[in-house]
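Exercise: predict the fold of this chain.
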Amino acid sequence: MTELSPAEFEALRATIRERGTARLYIVIAGLSLWGALAIALLVSDLDGSITLAPFLVLAATFETNFFVHTGVERIGRYIQVFYEERTGSSGWETTAMNYGAKFPGGLDPLFSIIFFSAGVVNFLSALVVAAPRPGWIAVSLAAHLAFNYRIVRARQSSAAQRATDLERFRKLANER
């Protein structure tokens, strides 16, 4: 670790570990809150715009998960370029990236199938509540379609992120 600080390296690894753990808790808490709100809405006499409350919790949970995942991956590429490649070592970040490239189709860090499924369930439950108001059905449909499109785009972005960030950090390293 030539001129780079071992303390910085340790702090970055700790950040990855802590954010990775926090992300899982955020997803569990967000999906639990979404489920509780959706059930409460179904058993109550509320209708109208309140039907979007569980949806907003679901969307916010997905966005938070995506944001934290993106940041953790970016820190990993920084470590890969400025710590592993500079010292000529093949540490965890390099190995993990090579593994993902050689053996694609692993885990889904964005939980996109879960969020997509929750979005479908949410829309169907909103249909029950909003049935007497066709305008709300149209608004809900548009919001849910936009959410599912966002999930697809986030997956595409996430799939390309490692290579993109690696290239960008290498450019920055070469400028030093």
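Check your answer against the key: Residues 77 and 162 are 7 Å apart (CA to CA).
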